[in-house]
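ping. complex inputs:
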Amino acid sequence: MARYALAIDCNRCVGCMACNGACKMVNNVPIGSFWNKVLRIGPNEPGQDEVPSHDFYFLPVQCQHCENPECVKVCPTGASHRLPDGTVQIDKGKCIGCQFCAMSCPYGVRYLNEEERVVEKCTLCEQQIAQGELPQCVTNCVGMAKWFGDLDEGIESFRGPCGETMGDFCEPFDGEHDVHTLTDVGNRPSFLYILRDHTWQGKE
Amino acid sequence: MEMQWPLILFTLFMAWSAGVFGTAAVLALAGGGKRVQMPALVTSVVLLAVGGIAVFFHLEHWDRIFNGFGNPTSGITQELIVIVLMAVVMVVYFVYLRKPEPVVPRWLAVAAIVVSVALVVVMSHSYNMAARPAWDSPLLWLAYLGNAALFGPLTVTLLAASFPDAEGVSEDAPEAASAKAVVRAGSVLATSGVVGAVANAVLSVAWGASVMMSAASFTEVGLYWDPTHPNYPIVNPAEAANILSGEASLLFWIGVVVIGCAVPVVCAALGRRKGAPAVPLAGVGLACAIVGAVCLRMVFYSAGASVFMFY
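pong. complex structure:
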């Protein structure tokens, strides 16, 4: 049992979208679909005592492999399911294409594959992590912003592309104030976002 | 969110079917409307079937429909269970109507009302999703129940005009009792029409208010940019559920409030007057109710943005 997830150091993300391209190549993501993407948040007015003149950061977004996934709850056939490793996967052979999972996802990260007529999304490169490798978006992250690991072992243990760990490589962060999640409406997203010296925009 | 027409039609026909079946059962409880029972049952079965066919157009892989409905937390599974229950009650109802003395027992009428209400509630409950704040309210159940409560009496009024009770009174029935039953059934139907129209109006407007109140639930991130859609305008969470003055406002005010609520109330109220032309009024009321219910569902999808709407 594990709780695989990504920890994303937003202060390191340069918005190059290499993760986006890598995902597309490895997973053969159809044109028009995005299993991950990078949003630019800001520029917004900075918070009090913040060093940058404007609040501005990049936010890589994809399936958050939630601990209490709404997509799994609403799936009538069990096509969307949660694996023992904590990831949420889709059995495309069972999917009837009702798209209720896409409606129930708070983040809009699920896409209908028009050709196969089933819903798809980020698998966290299950084909690779099952063999001890990293998700491709982590491997190809130019800014060393994306880190992969097991939440049960702590965020500092998350691994980067050259064997580094987040605890050794990244700048220190305040676990209470600098670690965020995307908006949680009861789905308990697994991915963690680290943002120092900026105001995190949006609810958690 | 894009309009999901198969689901709009599915929820429309399900509410319509439940409304007709429930109204027939109310008439049966009141001891009248004997001749209209079978046409009403057939109508509700047809409406249920049409709704069922409509939903198949939403599925990308309907050929895999029997992959299993084993997940009880899925709204679709719950809908299927209630539809099967309703079909079972309909079959029993049919059996009683085919007896030499076609009388619907009280327990069966109550079961028909309960399963009709359950169908609408379960159907609308499957759209309650925390991810879509405008959808996540029990008032949606009530709005769809209001639709059903309006569709039912108006449709049965039209059917009753073609199958009047007076023609079905058996020759050996006590004249006074039969005449009383006919009058009582007419009165119940007219009252149901008014109650249904008022309930539909109140509940539709209440649902609209709940959609407006969901505005605070959307995530705001200030300025942002999505490089995969560089020419898309920035979405404004504050406007996502603004159905009173936003993009969907015409649909709400004209379609839902005026056509879908006000006109049926007027038709139902006029229909209660002695000597009023019940059939044209019911026809106009029903047509407007259908337009209103479709508009309500269009507003539903229009306001159905996800809580984090920037992806």
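Chain A touches chain B through 48 residues (CB under 8 Å).
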